[in-house]
Amino acid sequence: MRDSLLSLQLVSQLGLAPIPRILKTEAYVEKQRSQYPYLYLWMLGVHPQFQGKGFASSLLDPLLLEAQKEEIPVLLETSTLQNVSLYQHKGFEIYHEYQPSRELTIYFLRKDPS
């Protein structure tokens, strides 16, 4: 249900023109994910006023502990280069990049259990 609401909001904000590109990108992203068990970080956000104060780590660390306990990787994607640095600091590595347009690069990151 939530995904349907997000899709409707997206269409109302962007119109119909970018929908084929969005669907193509989503299909590509899905293919890049592991065929083995993993935890997936769909979205993590911290209000700009609170960035750089450890809130992202507070949100991310429990997921990383669970993945380590279960001995499974954590996967995520981001299109923000600044976020890549944050995730690399937490032990993630870029395993793939995809550029569906000149304006957009998607970075695929993975953190294996250690």
Task: Describe the 3D structure.
The chain is an alpha+beta fold. 46% of the residues lie in helices and 21% in strands. The chain is built from four helices and four strands; from the N terminus they run ααβαβαββ. It has a four-stranded mixed sheet, sandwiched between helices.
Poorly predicted runs are: 1-6
Strand content: 15-25%
Number of helices: 4
| Order of strands, widest sheet | 1-2-4-3
Protein structure class: alpha+beta
What is the residue-mean pLDDT, rounded to a whole number?
Answer: 81
Main pleated sheet: 4 strands, mixed
Name the shape in a single word: globular
Radius of gyration: 15 Å
- Count the E strands: 4
Oligomer: single chain
Instruction: Sketch the topology as an H/E string, one letter per element.
Output: HHEHEHEE
Helix content: 40-55%
